[in-house]
Amino acid sequence: MSPLTTRAELDARFGKANVRDDTLPGAEGEGEVPALTVFPNDAKRRLRLVLDPEQPNNQDAPIQELRVSDPDSRWHDRNGLHPGMSLAELVKRNGAPISFYGLNWDYGGSVQDWHGGKLANGVGDALFHRVTLAARSGVNADALPTGDGSFRSDDPRWPTLGKDMVVAELGISWPHDSE
Q1: CA 179, 64, 20 angle in degrees (round to 5)?
Q2: Which residues contact 145 (CB under 8 A, 6 or more apart)?
Q3: CA–CA distance, 108 with 33 (Å, rounded to integer)
Q4: How far apart are CA 56 and CA 51, in angstroms?
Q5: In this predicted model, what pLDDT tens digit does every residue of 86-111 receive, in sequence order?
Q6: pLDDT digits (tens, 9 = 90+) for 16-56
Q7: How many Å apart are CA 122 and CA 125, to the nearest integer?
Q8: Alpha-carbon distance 88 to 165, whole Å?
Q9: 113-151, pLDDT tens digit by residue?
Q10: Is the four-CA dihedral 41, 43, 47, 48 of positive or negative sign?
């Protein structure tokens, strides 16, 4: 799959009944962005494809990002990262602490620094990998770091972060021209 994969190619690959027009919320009040959902009725196989918002009525608008957010999803990235993975496991695979934005706002939980670890996006990489964290089911998010500040996974003020937070969403996007 690439940014130029067409709707017809998706229909042929996954079955026309398994590809649905959709929208997803945009960040910071941007409204909704056009998307396609593959396997919309199957949480294990569901995949969301965010389309170029500049071409909202074009079924073959370029794909800007792939998103996976179901905890039971079979999808994972090249490093084996998947929704539902604990923050402790994420840090272990990275080989270094991570920093993320506090919860409860538009960019809440977004990993923003890998501190030189193995999972960092490299300069010139063909793909950009994004990870968003959230409170594990049953954990009160207000008891975890909140707000638009940056927090480290090894912050001693939250000694149980590793088990209390999980990967909520993976995103993979391609660089695009900003002409």
Answers
A1: 135
A2: 100, 102, 103, 151, 155, 158, 161
A3: 19
A4: 8
A5: 999 999 999 999 999 999 988 999 99
A6: 999 999 988 877 767 888 899 999 999 999 999 988 877 76
A7: 5
A8: 8
A9: 999 999 998 887 778 899 999 999 999 988 999 998 999
A10: positive
Decide if 141 contacts 134 (C-beta within 8 A). Answer: yes
- Residue 40 near residue 25, CB atoms below 8 Å: no
Cα separation, 75 vs 58, in Å, equals 26
Between β-strands 63-68 and 47-51, what pairing exists: parallel, antiparallel or unpaired?
A: antiparallel
Tens digits of per-residue pLDDT, 57-87?
Answer: 666 778 889 999 999 999 998 899 999 999 9
- Six-digit token string for 155: 């912050």
> Three-state secondary structure along 75-133?
CCCCCCCCCCCEHHHHHHHHCCCCEEECECCCCCCEEEECCCCCCCCCCCCCCEEEEEE
Give the CA dihedral 49, 55, 58, 63, nearest 10 degrees: -30
